[in-house]
Amino acid sequence: MNRTTLSLLAGTVALAAVTGFATLSSPKAAETARTAAELPVERTSLLCPAPSTSEVAETAYTSFTPVTKDTGSGGQAELKAATEESDGKSKGKKKAAKPVLTPKEPGTPVTGDTSGGDAPALVGTAEGKFAPGWTVQETTEVAAGAGRGLQGVNCSAPDTEFWFPGASTAADRTDYVHLTNPDDSAAVVDIELYGKDGALDSTLGEGITVAPHSSDPILLSTLTEEKQEDLTVHVNVRSGRVGAAVQALDDKLGGDWLAASTDPSGSLVVPGIPKDATAVRLVAFTPSDSDADLKVQLASPSGLITPAGNETLHVKGGMTTAVDLGDVTRGEAGSLVLTPTDASVPVVAAVRVVRGKGDDQETAFIPATRPVGTRATVADNSAKGSTLSLTAPTRTATVKVTASAGSGGGEAVSKTFTIKAGTTQDVEAPTPTGLKGTYALTVEHVSGGPVYGARTLAATEDGVPGFTIQTLPDDRGMVAVPEADEDLSVLQK
Asked: What pLDDT was estimated at residue 376?
């Protein structure tokens, strides 16, 4: 067998490891463009950060996989503590952590809970029919103290680079970058901080080692002596891979998780700003040496609106820029649409949202996100307190929204919505028939332009409007596999 054949075989093995299926075409056939087949992924990993250090924290986990065609009948999914436990017999020896959450069947959520401030970070793996679209929601209620209120985050896949515009080292903020390593070897990570004048001087963020099967919360104020209200955090993994999320805790405004922004891009959408937001702060950053000028628009229920006094945003290269938009939604659902004058300059962005007034204020964050794409899911919804917001910034689109069976019982229900071009709609999402427990919402793109989505969870405790917001990016549960019509025999000699 010649070298060309060996190279093609290696590519086939790698592809089959992801999709469970692959064949080869001859070089002649490869020159012809073909429609790729969409097949379900066969393995997915998710990482959940340690929820809180507060002794009055109550955390719920919800695991859900939407039903996907052509997955077969096998597979499993489980979440377990990231840190291995001592076996209690020999010093230095560890035993594998026991699963804390094990789903039984796609289409039905499974829930678990914990309390106190010593709950660990979790690592999860889903295989077979549980892998495509697997999502896990971590929701924490903190009754008092810094960050009090409702905190929520979608557990994320391990990766090698993350951007977090909207972090802070201000005096009233306590922000941590949580790094979780799911693998058998150590990960080496650099954390870079960018403020209003550029990169902050710090050597402490270089070469951070995250041990195998462990999670480290890195306090941002230990990496720099500078106090800055608005920072962009860049997590770059030199070796290995990690999960990363920023926990932003405010002494007066509560707190929440700041998920990573979508990769630097020319145009961005920040969906699902609550209609009763009392303050919205937009934070943007470009890693380019060139400046970026962004047109700022609000996609409202009636169409695109340009906020008075904030028509554009100038973002200097390598510097974090922030602007207060006030109560920009003015009682209506809204999403920010950021478009550049020069699409070649990439940008990341997020907003900090405040609800309530005076002492009864709470905070959440919304990063710029990918579109729903083929399908996206968010878990831990309840009959009351859940709001699904969808926006179609460029062209009218149709989506199908499915409410899953409840974690304690009920039957799935679907409903179709049309979102007009340039608008944001808080849709009346369906709820399961005979609902018991919590449920998941799955959004599928049917036709038209791209759709972006976000879900708000709200819960009022002692008059304080606790809330948290999660975006709905494409779940990447399907992978394209090129069609082939010839076998390896044509390459053998």
From this structure: 98
H or E element that contains 17: helix 3-19
pLDDT at 33 over 60: no
pLDDT (average), residues 104-117: 94
The Cα 61–Cα 80 span in angstroms is 12
Would you tell me how many other CB atoms lie within 10 Å of the CB of residue 295? 14
Would you state the torsion angle of the CA atoms of residues 36, 38, 43, 47, taken in this order, to the nearest 10 degrees?
100
222: region left, alpha or beta (phi > 0 left; psi from -120 to 50 alpha): alpha
pLDDT exceeds cutoff 60 at 47? yes
Q: d(Cα 159, Cα 277) in Å, to the nearest integer?
A: 32
User: Do residues 48 and 119 touch, judged by C-beta distance below 8 A?
Assistant: no
Query: Burial letters for 34-67: b for 16+ Cβ neighbours within 10 Å, e otherwise?
Result: eeeeebbbbbbbbbbbbbbbbeebbbbbbbbbbb
48 Cβ neighbours under 8 A, 6+ residues apart = 61, 79, 121, 122, 123, 124, 136, 138, 153, 155, 180, 243
Who has greater pLDDT, 406 or 84? 406
Residue among 265, 467, 445, 252 at smallest CA distance from 366? 467
- Greater pLDDT, 94 or 155: 155
In whole angstroms, give the CA distance from residue 71 to residue 42. Answer: 8
Predicted local distance difference test score (pLDDT) of residue 325: 97
> Which residues, other chains included, contact 312 with Cβ-Cβ below 8 Å and sequence gap of 6+?
293, 294, 295, 296
CA atoms of 288 and 244, how far apart (whole Å): 23
pTM attached to this predicted model: 0.89
In whole angstroms, what is the distance from residue 148 CA to residue 219 CA? 18
In order of 41, 198, 273, 276, the CA distances from 357 in angstroms are 46, 33, 17, 11
